[in-house]
Amino acid sequence: TVLVVDFGAQYAQLIARRVREARVYSEIVPHSMPVSEMLARNPKAIILSGGPASVYADDAPAMGPELFQAGVPVLGICYGFQAMALALGGTVANTGQREYGRTALTVTRGGSTLFQGTPEEQSVWMSHGDACTVAPEGFVVTATSERAPVAAFENDEARLYGTQHHPEVMHSSHGQQLLEHFLYRGAGLTPSWTTQNVVEESVRAVRAQVGDKRVICGLSGGVDSAVAAALVQRAVGDQLTCVFVDHGLLREGEPQQVEKDFVAATGVQLKVVDAQQRFLTALAGVSDPEQKRKIIGREFIRVFEQAAAEVVAEAGAHGAQVEYLVQGTLYPDVVESGGGTGTANIKSHHNVGGLPDDLQFQLVEPLRRLFKDEVRKVGEELGLPAEIVWRQPFPGPGLGIRIVGEVTAERLELLRKADAIAREELTRAGLDRDIWQCPVVLLADVRSVGVQGDARTYGHPVVLRPVSSEDAMTADWSRLPYDVLARISTRITNEVPQVNRVVLDVTSKPPGTIEWE
Ligand code: XMP
């Protein structure tokens, strides 16, 4: 394991991902973790991330020298670089001269461990106010920039390295190479974190955890639950039963993807609950988005609860007990909820939110260590269909929050058709992996006049909301080619009755959210 020490900026997750792209396993720990605890994890290397603070700020997190004396290879980045310089007796000056964004870096030691084989002049991403002016004793300066006289240093003998710029961001031209040099040359690691190994390890871990007990898993049609279920199926076979609640709010073809394609690919035992009517009844007359979300969430839990109780009862009739529930929790959720620091709590007893006390399950979370892109790779390795593995994000409440106004069976039908056309054309244009997602929204409470054939129509608009994003926290509207937009518009207005207008949402997030409700 490589530990990435998080100094509170948004870069730690990116560093961890880049390390894994170099096929070395990494985990994030908070800077508040005592050094003794970090070392107790036996890290093969440690990377100190950037941070928002100046090393001279009152609340600046410091790094004691112990970390650097343990014989573990360390790479300090940005704030971590400066904290390292200070801890080892170098000088960091509060110059007040900021260097921010794209910066020219001059490599002064071409043969150095970090920069070997990369150009003398590099374009890198900087973000700092203070600057290291004197490297600690025993270190050689390996690069400089206009406002950072010591922009990188290393002490090969002690296996300590540091750089002021951010090698993890894509704007740093040879950043990935620098990280790999640190990992392979500096720390002597070998690239062995492969998807195949991840699958094997996860399968082993699930088997060890579950033993001969029975497991239940809810499938939503999304990537995470599908990959989690497929992994557990690979590990314990028919000890797993999946439950799919068809709430009628999925897009065209999605229930079939779960009921046919997923089952065919994995051989999983599936219990399908057709709850379409129940959801429509519960949503009748409701237009308020928050109200809709609450109703959908509540009904979903009730239906799943009942299905789970039936699975438990059926197993009981055969003398077995269902003790585990699969959850598709991903690593970013674990880090963000502060749970990244320990693995001990994985097996503790949870009462899953909303499930009644007499249905207590322990959680199996096979994706808990993975980033989304890794989950997709695992899905491919397990042979899941591309339509599932590469599915774009889709909200839990489904089309229910893409109909502005009351949700009815007829409106769902219209929206499903319009959405299917948009998806088909985007796929045909090869744009699926360029955009984050493209919600299609039916403005059911809005009508506008049109002319179709020779007749006046009074129909509804649909909105196209294509966005690009890294993580859905912020997003920009995608500049789709006009001819693709034109094809989507023509087809929707021709093929979907009652829709006589297609409009494009050109709002970024913020201020607009991705979904309309
Ligand atoms: P917003 O609309 O908040 O959406 O910008 C951000 C991302 O989250 C998805 N989304 C949801 N996902 N349950 C989910 O599982 C929800 O209730 C939900 N609401 C929004 C949305 O599609 C986008 O990717």
UniProtKB/TrEMBL annotation:
Species source reads Wenjunlia vitaminophila (Streptomyces vitaminophilus)
Top EC class per UniProt? ligase
Q: What is this protein called?
A: GMP synthase [glutamine-hydrolyzing]
The free-text function statement in the UniProt record for this protein reads: Catalyzes the synthesis of GMP from XMP.
UniProt keyword annotation of ATP-binding present: yes
Question: InterPro entries of this UniProt entry?
Answer: Class_I_gatase-like, GATASE, GMP_synth_C, GMP_synth_GATase, GMP_synthase, GMPS_ATP_PPase_dom, NAD/GMP_synthase, Rossmann-like_a/b/a_fold
Stored NCBIfam families: guaA_Cterm, guaA_Nterm, PRK00074.1
- Gene Ontology terms, cellular component aspect? cytosol
